[in-house]
Amino acid sequence: MKVTIVAAVLALAATPALAQSNHSGHAGMNHGQMNHGTMQPTAANPYGPAEMRMHERMMAAQGANADETWIRKMIEHHRGAIEMSNIQVARGANAQVKAEARRTAASQQREINTLNAMLRRMGLRPQ
Asked: Which end of the chain is more exposed for a tag (fewer CB within 10 A), N or C?
């Protein structure tokens, strides 16, 4: 039964017309019709613009194969985490959360460095 369901889902996803007409991402959001005005920063959620930039950069990142594309998308994902962490440090009030945001930014930079080193070893330009 599981195999049949998985096969049906894969067959539907592979249908070009359906894939183009039903572009959905996180939690079913239709990004083609996303209201970018809702991404305006507020005091409680100053991350909207950074999230939007991260999403756009991840969507645009691609390579010649699945390995390179994954690396390039993950680099953009980690860059987004750094940007959001820096916003938290600048605007947050809780010292423990700020410390974690700083640690997160440092660890995400290490991940970017690792991924760029992988690209170099593959003979590809780093990002």
From this structure: N
Q: Which helix (H) or strand (E) holds 7?
A: helix 2-13
- Examine the pLDDT at 19 and tell me if it is beyond 70: no
Given a cut of 70, whether residue 75 has pLDDT beyond it is yes
Distance CA 86, CA 81 (A): 9
Alpha-carbon distance of 18 to 32, in angstroms, equals 14
pTM: 0.70
φ and ψ at 34, to 5 degrees?
A: -65, 135
Q: For residue 1, what are the domain limits?
A: 1-34
Please give the pLDDT value at position 84.
98
- If one counts the domains in the chain, the total is 2
Whether 115 contacts 122, CB under 8 Å: no
